[in-house]
């Protein structure tokens, strides 16, 4: 059988060393795997009449970059409307909202996303701060963490939310001292009260949004992602796109397990494992141990400066431990959102208990890990728990001088141990990098850069937050190639360039290992290949 694809005049990079492999060309078989490595003459001779042959003119080829934590379907729904992520203060937000309001039809809902709580400064995060811009307009403004939103008075009225509510999980309709909602809604259960009152997009609109997002991800150099949700009909949308040949990235999908999950719910999650298609598969289960530090819903060993972040997302943390044990015994990987030190510690304790009761090779994960003490760091390697981290959150939502909301809430000691990528790496943990899009931008070169420079992307002249926690260029590359493959138990077929490995490849117009970190996002993505098929190609290639 002739190759599906041939790449010539390439610098094939070894993610173990950062050096070039002793070959300049490769071929991809009909099965989507790398079939041969060699020099240009040897590989060119393998071509058949249907083979696509591309001369890369010396471009650097790496194993395909994989985002270790991403929300494609959910993010495609959340990121419609007005992008507020570039607003630096309240005046910027008010002006952007006023301009956008003029484009709306009478009675239409205003949707916005990416709102940074730091724009409120010392003021409470509440809808009154945006009056009179939002007066009379039903509006939902998603905060950057996607765990909270601001609802305008008109939106609250249409949803029938006029006071506090009680939920089965950690969530809150924030109210003033007279019991009136301030507009701030914390966590999904509270947000959904108002979201469901807004007009909903059609299925066709959601499919088109998702397809557009995935195409843009491929163009940014992503070949895969660990999708941390399977809400609504997202699995059906992935299936539909895959069968139509319109899925340009390889996805591993982890459906959520929420507090209150009973034996039947766990059985359904276990039975769902392994289902999928050519380029997507259900693999693992996503859980939450806490919320976020910025909105006071993380789980900390000591309260934050407001006396908040003292409770677990699971009202009964022992129930979470039981669920981890059940999934572990079934051979199912778990990925737990744990931001605060108490949350991370409880996850590790639960994994340790599960392993003691049923030894096995399941590679569990902790997602985010924003602040942890020394004794927690070393346990990741001891328990073979993957450390899934998003350093661009540190870059763009905190400040080196600790004047940001996240740092002020934690205080100097805990803010000084922010996103300990270096310490976890040096302790032997498998660090996997990702964006958590739509929380932060998904282009992987930006993620690689942030892990190295730890500076705000909108002003790279500002000082870094915790420069001692930076990774090297080679380590960052490994954390988006080799380590995601290990986290998935696929290190024998993914994460490297070798015969028999998947032909998931990213091609750059520069070296992502040696390029200066602040210049890395500007390196052009020349080609993206998934399963041996071109999903993005520069116009001149």
Automatic annotation (TrEMBL):
**Looking at the keywords, is Hydrolase present?**
yes
Q: Name one GO molecular function term.
A: hydrolase activity, acting on carbon-nitrogen (but not peptide) bonds
- Domain (Amidohydrolase) spans 53-536
Q: May I ask which residue range the UniProt record assigns to the signal sequence?
A: none
Sorted UniProt keywords: Hydrolase
Instruction: Give any Pfam family that matches.
Output: Amidohydro_3
Keyword Transit peptide among UniProt keywords: no
Any idea of its EC number? 3.5.-.-
| Gene3D superfamilies from the UniProt entry | 3.10.310.70, Metal-dependent hydrolases, Urease, subunit C, domain 1
Q: What is this protein called?
A: Amidohydrolase
């Amino acid at each position: 059988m002739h190759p599906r694809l041939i790449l010539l005049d390439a610098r094939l990079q070894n993610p173990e060393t950062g050096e070039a492999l002793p070959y300049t060309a490769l071929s991809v078989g009909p099965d989507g795997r790398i079939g041969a490595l060699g020099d240009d003459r040897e590989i060119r001779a393998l071509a058949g009449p249907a083979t696509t042959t591309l001369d890369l003119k010396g471009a650097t080829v790496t194993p395909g970059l994989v985002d270790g934590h991403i929300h494609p379907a959910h993010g495609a729904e959340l990121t419609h409307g007005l992008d507020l992520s570039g607003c630096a203060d309240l005046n910027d937000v008010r002006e952007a909202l006023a301009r956008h309001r003029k484009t709306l039809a009478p009675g239409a809902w205003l949707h916005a996303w990416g709102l940074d709580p730091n724009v409120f400064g010392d003021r409470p995060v509440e809808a009154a701060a945006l009056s009179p811009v939002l007066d009379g307009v039903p509006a939902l403004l998603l905060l950057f963490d996607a765990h909270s939103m601001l609802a305008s008075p008109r939106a609250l009225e249409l949803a029938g939310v006029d006071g506090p509510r009680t939920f089965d999980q950690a969530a809150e309709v924030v109210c003033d001292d007279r019991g009136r909602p301030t507009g701030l809604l914390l966590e999904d259960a509270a947000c959904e009260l108002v979201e469901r009152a807004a007009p909903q997009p059609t299925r066709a609109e959601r499919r088109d949004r998702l397809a557009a997002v995935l195409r843009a991800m491929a163009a940014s150099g992503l070949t895969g992602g660990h999708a941390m949700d399977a809400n609504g009909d997202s699995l059906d949308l992935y299936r539909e796109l895959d069968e139509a040949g319109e899925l340009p990235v390889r996805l591993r999908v982890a459906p959520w397990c929420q507090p209150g999950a009973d034996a039947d719910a766990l059985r359904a999650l276990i039975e769902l494992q392994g289902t999928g298609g050519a380029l997507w598969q259900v693999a693992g289960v996503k859980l939450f141990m806490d919320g976020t530090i910025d909105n006071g819903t993380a789980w900390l060993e000591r309260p934050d400066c407001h006396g908040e972040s003292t409770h677990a997302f699971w009202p009964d943390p022992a129930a979470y431990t039981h669920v981890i044990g059940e999934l572990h015994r079934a051979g199912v990987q778990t990925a737990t959102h744990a931001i605060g030190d108490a949350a991370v510690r409880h996850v590790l304790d639960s994994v340790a208990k599960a392993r003691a009761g049923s030894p096995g090779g399941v590679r569990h994960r902790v997602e985010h890990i924003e602040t942890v003490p020394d004794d927690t760091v070393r346990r990741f390697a001891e328990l073979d728990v993957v450390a899934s981290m998003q350093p661009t959150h540190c870059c763009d939502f905190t400040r080196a001088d600790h004047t940001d909301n996240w740092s002020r809430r934690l205080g100097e000691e805990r803010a000084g141990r922010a996103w300990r990528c270096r310490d976890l790496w040096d302790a032997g943990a498998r660090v996997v990098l990702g964006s958590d899009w739509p929380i932060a931008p998904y282009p992987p070169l930006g993620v690689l850069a942030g892990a190295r420079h730890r500076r705000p992307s909108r002003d790279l002249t500002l000082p870094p937050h915790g420069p001692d926690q930076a990774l090297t260029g080679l380590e960052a590359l490994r954390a988006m190639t080799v380590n995601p493959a290990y986290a998935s138990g696929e290190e024998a077929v993914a994460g490297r360039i070798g015969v028999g490995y998947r032909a998931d490849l990213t091609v750059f117009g520069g070296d992502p290992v040696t390029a200066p970190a602040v210049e890395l996002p500007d390196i052009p993505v020349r080609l993206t290949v998934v399963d041996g098929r071109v999903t993005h190609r520069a116009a001149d290639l």
